[in-house]
Amino acid sequence: MVGAIGCERSSSLGPGPSEGSPRGAHLGTTWHRHRSLPAAPSWTDVVSLLRERRSSSDEAASTSTPAAPGQVFLVGTGPGDPSLLTLRAVQLMQTADVVLYDRLVSDDILQMIHPGARMVYVGKAKGMHSSKQEDIHDLLLQFAEEGATVLRLKGGDPYVFGRGGEELEYLESRGIRVWCVPGITAAAGICAELGIPMTHRGVATSVRFLTGHVRDAPEAQAQLDECISVASDPHTTLVVYMGLTKLRELVATLTRNGLDPATPAVAVERGTTVHQRAVGAPLNEFVDKVERVGLQSPTLLVIGGVCALSPHYPELLASEVIDGQIVPRPRVGRQLLSEAQDREGEGTLA
Ligand SMILES: C[S@@+](CC[C@H](N)C(=O)[O-])C[C@H]1O[C@@H](n2cnc3c(N)ncnc32)[C@H](O)[C@@H]1O
């Protein structure tokens, strides 16, 4: 018997790369839902367009001084719910010339970008042919060199497993000014949604963000194994990004290194979106439960005593499979809050 909580929210993950958009271009193949819009120019057309625009404005200004390069903004968009965007992110979305966006940037957020911006999808999907990081670097550079204000939109926060640091290094070393606009990382957004305090007096004195996925190199794997063994600490909340594929090994290493198999754990797929699904279990039942429910990427794992503090933990533990179908559980987070507010409102009126 398996439990999963479905949560109805106002946003969705899984943006359609706007390769079909008149203002869009697409780099790489993806499993994403596509918008059905007219044919798009390629990103090379977008660069040419910027070049033309720039040379005509240079002529108009009839100056011999070369125009300055543009700037790149690495912008975090949070875990999916648009109401978790920062004001600065929204302001930039209203003014950018070009927007390069990832798989994790939700459709609802993409809709907020002004219609004049050129959209380029550069998402990566595990196991699929997708954009190479070097191509993304190159594109960012080309657009910036043409004088554009470039927005590099990323899910969560650009500097938390977002490769924002690599883009910063590449561009800064080539004379392009880079600014980072922080976003709410999946850990913060999802723990807030489910009522899991990442630290709590007497329960967790530290938090560790860990990746379950490392590049294919023996030293990288050894480094990760070392990190997991150190993380086997009952007073640390462990938040694992990209941890689904290696979940069984991860849990085995944690328990082998002394973490209590009864430690509460929660897995959340597409957190803060209308598609949110979540399950909870003690560590020794966690892997089987996550596999039976069939959670897919993007899924975040939270392991530690703090999970049991969530008011939803009993529901997350509950069994809910009928004929192989996961039955949506009562709604959590914002939905519960707004229902409570509605009731309050009704009370006031009465
Ligand atoms: C490449 S990392 C990007 C992390 C991002 N920069 C952040 O700060 O949240 C992608 C992983 O983040 C986690 N993630 C991001 N958004 C999520 C969401 N809405 N729900 C669940 N997990 C999410 C998943 O573990 C996913 O595999």
Provide a descriptive summary of the structure in words.
It contains eleven helices and 14 strands. A six-stranded mixed beta sheet has the order 1-11-10-12-9-8, with helices on both faces. It has a six-stranded parallel beta sheet with strand order 2-5-4-6-3-7, sandwiched between helices. Strands 13-14 form a two-stranded antiparallel sheet. The longest helix has 19 residues. It folds into two domains: about 170 residues, Tetrapyrrole methylase, N-terminal domain (Cobalt-precorrin-4 Transmethylase, domain 1), CATH 3.40.1010; about 150 residues, Tetrapyrrole methylase, C-terminal domain (Methyltransferase, Cobalt-precorrin-4 Transmethylase, Domain 2), CATH 3.30.950. It has about 350 residues and is an alpha/beta fold. The structure holds S-adenosylmethionine (SAM). S-adenosylmethionine binds next to helix 6 and strand 12. The site of S-adenosylmethionine has 24 residues, from helix 6 and strand 12.
Strand order of the largest sheet: 1-11-10-12-9-8
Radius of gyration (Å): 22 Å
Instruction: Please count the beta strands (DSSP E, at least 2 residues each).
Output: 14
CATH superfamily of the largest domain: Tetrapyrrole methylase, N-terminal domain
Estimate the mean pLDDT confidence: 81
**Overall tally of domains:** 2
Q: Estimate the global geometry from the Cα principal axes.
A: elongated
Work out the helix count. Answer: 11
Bound molecules: S-adenosylmethionine
Q: Report the sheet-strand fraction.
A: 15-25%
Order of helices and strands: EEHEHEHEHEHEHEHEHEEHEHEEH
* CATH class assignment of the largest domain: Alpha Beta
Going by CATH, the architecture of the largest domain would be 3-Layer(aba) Sandwich
Q: What separation lies between the terminal Cα atoms?
A: 43 Å
Unreliable spans: 7-22, 28-40
Q: Which fold does the CATH topology of the largest domain refer to? A: Cobalt-precorrin-4 Transmethylase, domain 1
- Relative helix content: 25-40%
Largest sheet: 6 strands, mixed
Q: Pairing-aware structural class of the strands and helices?
A: alpha/beta
